Amino acid sequence: MARIKIDQLSTVYPNGVRAVDSLDLEIADGEFFALLGPSGCGKTTLLRTIAGLEQASGGSVSIGDKDVTSFEPGRRNVAMVFQDYALFPHMTVSENIAYPLKVRRQPKTRQREVAERTAGSLSLGGLLERRPGQLSGGQQQRVALARAVAIDADVLLLDEPLSNLDARLRLEARTFLKRLQKDIGITTVFVTHDQAEALALADRIAVMEAGRIRQLGSPRDVFRRPSDTFVANFIGSTPMNLLDGTIENGSLSVAGATLPSPVDLPDDTKVTVGIRPEYLSLEPAGQGITGTVSTIENLGVSSLVTLECPDGSLLGLTVREQHEPAIGSTVTAVPEQGRLLLYGKEDGTVLR
Amino acid sequence: MTSLVLRRIGYTVFFAVILAFFAIPMLWLASAPFDSKPGLGLRWPDWTFGNVTATLEHPYALTSLVNSLLLCGLAMIVTTVLAACAAYALSRVRIPGRDVLLYLLLLLSSVVTGTAAMVPIFVMMYQLGLINSQYGTALVIAGGMLPAAIFILKDFVDAVPRSYEESARVFGASPGQILLHVVLPIARPGIATIVVWSFVQAWGNFLLPFLLLRDINSQPAAVLMRTLYDEGGSANLTVIPVFSLLYSIPVVVLYLFVSKRYGFRFHGGIKS
């Protein structure tokens, strides 16, 4: 068990791509940490640099109190689960789980014992003599996890561990993974492009873009208060409303409505107004944005209602089932107290 | 109706002739060794074991078969081990012009140990003092087979997913362990192919051992075959059939053994 400290880390590929760009990050001991971002943002490269599979071009990586930047992967005492699980097809489940011990030249009986114990705790008990090809996707994923936790590694690294599972299995595996991590208490870093997965699993999330961290915080922080429009766009299963607004006479003019400004700004400042569909509600009266209902999308227990505002912009909001307004009717959407965010028009960062 | 019958008869006769073309030499190989008066034609044998006894008593027959086994076993081992290491390295290490290098090697290998290069090879081996050395000859044969073996094996190694090796690396496996534990077992059908292929190539090689092994005591079976004449200068038909039979057994046995034990097939479960 150990913390990870990343200091000014850069990873540059031979073709000149700066996949990780002077990045600073500290991950606490026992933390479940998510690296989240769109594909090509450098999250996997960062993970692989922590593992030692990519050579850092600058900066350092420390695990515990040791600077491991120049260490071979095998000397860093990390365990890793790959996206394709990388289970050896010619070995049985038991041999796969015990492989790290085989490399460490532990006796056969100990290998067997550890494989049985680990498999038991991950409910793989009856499958020890099977080969990976004879297992389902969920079982393969658990074997890969078992192999990773069979040794007492300091750090567990997961590269998109759930992306090869189908949707229903993914939810199950997610719960399983979170419980396993809490039981073992191992410092875990996992990479994902699925914001829902990151929000559900992680203690803290780093949202990455172009080799840099755009926002670092708890799932709640990142969801409620995205630090810029990139993060705002990326997080949330329904996209955040981002509308053009202007400060006029100390209040906010947006989509043909006037709302109290959450931040004191000089008049005529152009801003981007961010508000999550979940934080808007339909009220008969109140200070809100008025519009005509144009479409209603059913999301199960709630519906996503899209309003067309007088100035032509579209505003999404969610309402509980059976509270949907009629299409074509004119309604007013009132933002929840303190949930309206203003972003600078130029740099897209949140204004406090 | 009749045309259909005629056509079927035509087909049957046609294939029977082709079948006979390949089957008759096999039948000769099965019957002639045990015939009291073996000839070059095929006939029902007048059973005897006299030929077998005569062959076993021949001063060089058995020695040459043992020589063959030694020579080809050695060439096979050298080829397989070196090709496996080279194929792994060439598959994983990026060097500029790698593919050109591979194709050039493949192209030149047939020239380098082919008839064209016989004189320089003979001179080189003479100066190295390796004439009449089975080890030296095995090395030359292996050298000739290596480019093709590397070429074939590299394809098999290329098919092993990178993440398998990286996974092993993270667990602390050394490059040697990765090769032994992960890459070779997965590329096993390729290795099996190279083992059989290189052995058979070396087994049938006449020219190189003929030139480099001048001493009849160290000559392999493929070379000795040509000395099996009687005093009159005609083929020694007492020894040749039995010798041919013995000569063909090891290749068949090797093929069956490798096919059964290691299998020219893939393991299930590799998702691409």
Keywords:
heterodimer, A: 352 residues, alpha+beta, 6-stranded mixed sheet, 8 helices, 21 strands, B: 272 residues, mainly alpha, AAA+_ATPase (chain A)
Write structural notes for this entry:
The complex is a heterodimer of chains A (352) and B (272). Chain A is of the alpha+beta class and 352 residues long. Helices cover 24% and strands 34% of the residues of chain A. Chain A is built from 8 helices and 21 strands. The longest helix of chain A has 18 residues, at 167-184. The radius of gyration of chain A is 24 Å and the shape is elongated. Chain A starts with a strand and ends with a strand. The relative contact order of chain A is 0.12. Chain B is mainly α. Helices cover 69% and strands 0% of the residues of chain B. Residues 266-272 of chain B have low confidence and may be disordered. The chains are: A alpha+beta (352), B mainly alpha (272). The A-B interface holds A 51-53, 72-75, 78-80, 82-84, 86-90, 99-100, 102-104, 131-134, 151 and B 161, 163-164, 166-174, 177, 181-182, 185-186, 188, 267-271. Chain B: It is found in: Cell membrane. Chain B: InterPro entries: BP-dep_ABC_trans_perm (IPR050901), MetI-like (IPR000515), MetI-like_sf (IPR035906). Chain B: It is a multi-pass membrane protein. Chain B: Its main location: membrane.
